[in-house]
Design brief:
By secondary structure, the protein is an alpha+beta fold. The chain has two domains: 6-83, no CATH class; 103-171. The chain is built from four helices and six strands; from the N terminus they run ααααββββββ. α2 (32-39) runs antiparallel to α3 (46-65).
Length: 173
């Protein structure tokens, strides 16, 4: 997953999650492969119960290997939400609405300024942000500076370099 670009990751997530999420919103039951595994618990005869678990777990494993079903834990969701911070995604219900992740802290990999005095920032994780206002940053940002990006009003973001006053910014990738 780390080798995929953020946009490719968004596409994969949208293609895998959107149909499932739509079905869930429409009141559909759990995924059939998960239902098959959980039904095995009701079988009382030990050999039949084991056979049921073996068959349903093998089907679930095959589906996961083929990427027709994706299993993620809460830590993976938190890491993915952090990686996608600042990117507008459709509400799939998988990552929440983003409001419960009000800010992120990161490390600056590089920064450059354009002819208009606006900065571009590349974070250590590869995320690219650009300044969208004309606020002057008091000193030149340097690699390894700590970056704090907070959600602001109306879907905007504020980016602060090394504790300096923040500038308005938006995510590019």
């Amino acid at each position: 997953m780390r080798k995929l670009t953020v946009l490719a990751l968004c596409s994969v997530i949208a293609s895998l999650v959107s149909p499932a999420h739509a079905a869930r919103k429409a009141g559909a039951a759990r995924a059939p492969l998960l239902v098959a595994v959980t039904r095995c618990r009701a079988i009382t005869e030990p050999a039949a119960r084991l056979a049921c678990f073996d068959e349903s777990v093998a089907a679930l494993d095959t589906a996961e290997t083929r990427r027709t079903i994706v299993v993620v834990d809460q830590q993976q969701v938190r890491e993915t939400r952090r990686t996608l911070f600042g990117i507008a995604l459709p509400d799939t219900g998988l990552f929440g609405n983003g409001e419960d992740l009000p800010q992120i802290e990161a490390t600056l990999a590089s920064a450059s300024v354009d002819d208009f005095g606006r900065w571009s920032f590349v974070l250590a994780d590869g995320a690219r942000w650009i300044q969208t206002d004309d606020t002057v940053i008091a000193r030149r940002p340097r690699a390894n500076d700590k970056i704090l990006i907070k959600r602001a009003a109306l879907g905007s973001f504020r980016l602060s370099v090394a504790g300096l006053p923040s500038v308005k910014a938006k995510r590019l990738n």
